Write the structure tokens for this entry.
Amino acid sequence: MEVKRVFIIVLDSFGIGAAPDAALFGDAGSNTLASVSRSRSFSVPNMQKLGLFNIQGVEVGNPAEFPEGAYARLTEKSKGKDTTTGHWELAGLVSEQAMPTFPNGFPDEVITELERRTGRGILCNKPYSGTQVIVDYGREQLQTGKLIVYTSADSVLQIAAHEDCIPLEELYRCCTEAREVMQGKYAVGRVIARPFLGEYPDFYRTSERRDYSLRPPGRTVPAAVADCGMDSIGIGKISDIFAGEGITRSLHIDGNKDGMDKTISMLDEDFRGLCFVNLVDFDSQYGHRNDVDGYAQALTDFDMRLGEFMRGMRQEDILFITADHGCDPGFEGTDHTREYVPMLAFGDIIKPADLGTRGSFADLGATVLEALGIDDEISGESFWKQIC
């Protein structure tokens, strides 16, 4: 049977156990799945029957006696544990060099150039929690019109501003300028716009964030799909992550629920090619905030919608569920964690199979291209013939 539509749903930060090199990242012992599985809010019967708890190395949950999907754990080869490197590798592009990080804040020459290009002063300039930074600097930002610039353990430059002080389009302009500044030795993976609203101390971040990524330096699955004349649809921040390259249509979302609404709506559309989805709430709302119960409930909510999605799939459809890194809400700190990620595959064409541990996230990308009949040069070893 010919494959016509491939759906990839990325559960942003849903790691399933420390990777072999986790200690190099300070993440030995991290396990997002294990942490959330202890919550009373955790219930994922649909992922269970696809084989989530049958995956090699998973020691929580009840394995399915007869799994309905193919399953594996994927190992990241890229030198990083962030959204950009994770998604790029899932799409067949391994990052051999780590993107720069700034644990002491950005150097003076960067800040001076940002001030010159944006025409605004800069506040903070240090690693910071995204929710705490607006509490600590939000009032000053409103009073002065300066930009809150901060970073994290990841390769990011984030700019926060109150929407009543700096309108969204102005904030986006400032981030576009920052993206141009952050090149060469300062080429962070992402510049992120972080608008917020509210009054002190109850400031809150809105859903109008935008990510300004580096352009992928090599071939990716979305580009290969688009170049063959097929549809390459991004839902959530997918287009941002790939700097728009290879994305023929992009749908912005307001949280996981809206993301699944739009993903399920795609089942009624007669497209041919790829629908690539990112559900970011797991990471941004719960992982980074050490909210175990919130993360568990978000997985439970997703799993309910997953059942609805699976019932609506056509015979020519394939679904892959995976993640881009970990962000263990039960682990010390609030940063991403270097973990294996799950791979679950489902569809009428898919035969149940235990694929063990794969050597790269890129194996998924290679499999997607082979399933769609596309011959292109990306990293990864396809497992298509093992599951069809």
The CA atoms of residues 130 and 150 lie 8 Å apart.
